[in-house]
Amino acid sequence: xxxxxxxxxxxxxxxxxxxxxxxxxxxxxxxxxxxxxxxxxxxxxxxxxxxxxxxxxxxxxxxxxxxxxxxxxxxxxxxxxxxxxxxxxxxxxxxxxxxxxxxxxxxxxxxxxxxxxxxxxxxxxxxxxxxxxxxxxxxxxxxxxxxxxxxxxxxxxxxxxxxxxxxxxxxxxxxxxxxxxxxxxxxxxxxxxxxxxxxxxxxxxxxxxxxxxxxxxxxxxxxxxxxxxxxxxxxxxxxxxxxxxxxxxxxxxxxxxxxxxxxxxxxxxxxxxxxxxxxxxxxxxxxxxxxxxxxxxxxxxxxxxxxxxxxxxxxxxxxxxxxxxxxxxxxxxxxxxxxxxxxxxxxxxxxxxxxxxxxxxxxxxxxxxxxxxxxxxxxxxxxxxxxxxxxxxxxxxxxxxxxxxxxxxxxxxxxxxxxxxxxxxxxxxxxxxxxxxxxxxxxxxxxxxxxxxxxxxxxxxxxxxxxxxxxxxxxxxxxxxxxxxxxxxxxxxxxxxxxxxxxxxxxxxxxxxxxxxxxxxxxxxxxxxxxxxxxxxxxxxxxxxxxxxxxxxxxxxxxxxxxxxxxxxxxxxxxxxxxxxxxxxxxxxxxxxxxxxxxxxxxxxxxxxxxxxxxxxxxxxxxxxxxxxxxxxxxxxxxxxxxxxxxxxxxxxxxxxxxxxxxxxxxxxxxxxxxxxxxxxxxxxxxxxxxxxxxxxxxxxxxxxxxxxxxxxxxxxxxxxxxxxxxxxxxxxxxxxxxxxxxxxxxxxxxxxxxxxxxxxxxxxxxxxxxxxxxxxxxxxxxxxxxxxxxxxxxxxxxxxxxxxxxxxxxxxxxxxxxxxxxxxxxxxxxxxxxxxxxxxxxxxxxxxxxxxxxxxxxxxxxxxxxxxxxxxxxxxxxx
Length: 880
Ligand code: PHE
Ligand code: ZN
Description:
Layout: E1 9-10, E2 19-29, E3 35-45, E4 54-56, E5 62-68, E6 71-72, E7 76-78, E8 81-84, E9 94-102, E10 112-116, E11 119-123, E12 142-152, E13 158-161, E14 164-170, E15 175-181, E16 186-187, E17 193-196, E18 199-206, E19 212-219, H1 228-245, E20 253-259, E21 266-267, E22 272-276, H2 289-304, E23 313-314, H3 320-339, H4 342-364, E24 376-377, H5 386-403, H6 405-419, E25 423-424, H7 426-435, H8 441-449, H9 451-454, E26 460-468, E27 473-481, E28 496-503, E29 509-517, E30 521-525, E31 534-537, E32 546-549, H10 553-562, H11 566-586, H12 595-606, H13 612-619, H14 624-629, H15 636-653, H16 655-665, H17 675-698, H18 702-713, H19 717-729, H20 735-745, H21 750-761, H22 770-777, H23 788-799, H24 803-806, H25 812-827, H26 829-836, H27 849-861, H28 868-878
Parallel strand pairs: 2-12, 19-20, 20-22, 23-25, 26-32
Antiparallel strand pairs: 1-24, 2-3, 3-9, 4-8, 5-6, 5-9, 7-8, 10-11, 11-17, 12-15, 12-16, 13-17, 14-15, 18-19, 21-22, 26-27, 27-30, 28-29, 28-31
Helix pairs in contact: 1-2, 2-3, 3-4, 3-5, 4-5, 5-6, 6-7, 7-8, 10-11, 11-13, 13-17, 15-17, 16-17, 17-18, 17-19, 18-19, 19-20, 21-23, 25-26, 25-27, 26-28, 27-28
Bound molecules: phenylalanine and zinc ion.
């Protein structure tokens, strides 16, 4: 097949499958160069659909034989599909046997069956199963699987697939076999196999009903000492889903396997989750606190899919957020519940919102904007987006807000009563949550609420306060609007839950409540309050919107100091910083931070009652991409310069306070990745960075020396990496020897080398020095563009996460980008398409960047043999 010539798929065109596949027996003779796959299926016609030929999906397969009920049959190819016309007429089941081969060692796309470090792995979501055998590769076709694996016993001692191991034994020629039966019907995207030299950490657990389960975490020999945290996270996930939603593990055996070649984070294959090593392997010497918490949420996420995704799956890929939005919501709740304390829960919420606003809001405003339930796609792989995942989770969160936590749990119970074992749509989910809560605002507003699924774009809520001096009451004029997005010029009003409070000038909370905004404009009368009370709106980020309210500095300072809602306390600090940054960027690019702002930051840093983790969030300035989103025309270098200057001033003005904070937080005793001690490490790290930045302006060598010492002596990766990063970020001379030493220490730890590359690709630009450094690092013997983690660590850190260095007036960053997109596209289209999105927002760029970026995109688009993945991204970027 020629690459990338497929047509656009529309949600409105959905039709039920013309055949059902009841059982699948797969038999693999595993060989890296040529694996033989025998696929024996029982099919029957779907009586609800007009009589038609059977068209099976396939991709890069070699077809050897097709038998129907044991007899040879005629068939033809229609592009990549195998078409069978002479099938038995009636609705009786018939047997179809297909024999194909494929070449796992040559599979650089990492979709279907592939080889990584001499082991076999599969990745089938979304449409990888068709690269293993001919099949109806769509999620609404659910079958029972029996899988036999045969392979060389010495090279591949471990043979795994979904479900239960029912038989195993030796064969001739040093080969052996294993047979697995999955007791649950599933769509083919949840199929998996693994074969190789692996070892497992094992844990037996008893469920609440007393049933025993075996949990296993498989890794390469030598990595076992990095599996404890993943296993603990898995046990916590099992317990949490039982306790919070009454959902228990439905399998005797639950396996997690790590591979270092993986396109995404992890995959929820039934009973056999396959993970990127990044989200499994951790010990204190090699992994940071962030890694530990990511592992916890990704292990939880994949485990929770067992119910939300596997037991109830998607009817078609337009419904992707049915499983992803809901499961992200569940993993966010899981992490919050594990964090425990209210303040630690708030920290997690702030982190989640930060991701939404720095990644999803730009997506929603750019050429790839799409609804949580898209209406069309060219390549489904391009729709594993922050909109489907993170905005989808916010939509589920709003449902919980509208029905209450218990009401939401009732809704989940009804959802499983109605749909367990089915492939359904987002409508069915929303209906179940609403029907279980007939008294709720969700029930009342459901059709309008579902606009969150159908309309793209980030709504803006404008709020204006009118105080009546006579009554002491405030009326809020609220209005909502939503910008046009591709294919959606006009939008209808959304249902927007707005949690609010009134904070007195003395800091006491006067009132609080919840208003559900449904009209284009409404007024909200707030209760009587003493003069000077400040409205605290959209508490906890109760809806994924941009809130516009003309806060005065004084009001923001009041909220920063006193708001009982920690989210809005943090938000007040962000607003103070963004307002200052924007004024400078729109002005002459100069910025001098005022005393009230600096004093507010100082006082927050010194507050005895606040958690270190929360302080670290408040004292971290808004990201460059977040600042850029507030501008109509962006000069990324100017944004970078202003933010750097703000950071320098916060560093210098608060030097003594940073030194104090460093001393207060730096010693943690024995390493534990819990919220309190990781918060302390985070604040100590931020302090050290600021101290090194201040030292750079003053030329003082004391703090860089201390950072270098810390880098050498640290007893865990968080402290070591933070010290290294402080030196690199502040451009200290000691950064060079520290980087060299770090590489020497961890040359055999791939995940740590990823950090080493990422730190250098993402470092602040000084006179255009980053691009040449990145080019040089591509020549490093440890660099390998074929490994997605490594490609991401260097290339993406530069192109997607370092705007000040990437957007160069000489366009060299864009030339580098287009070369890499084209190079990667020939290897792995999914990774290439993600990189292609680095220039999504090119239209906002100031000249000469804008024209140069367009030229670079056009250069990629002009390449004749692009994949669908990259072609869709660049075509949409260039579309008017
Ligand atoms: N379904 C996976 C998840 O979110 C993501 C994924 C998609 C992984 C496609 C691989 C390929 O948990
Ligand atoms: Zn998922």
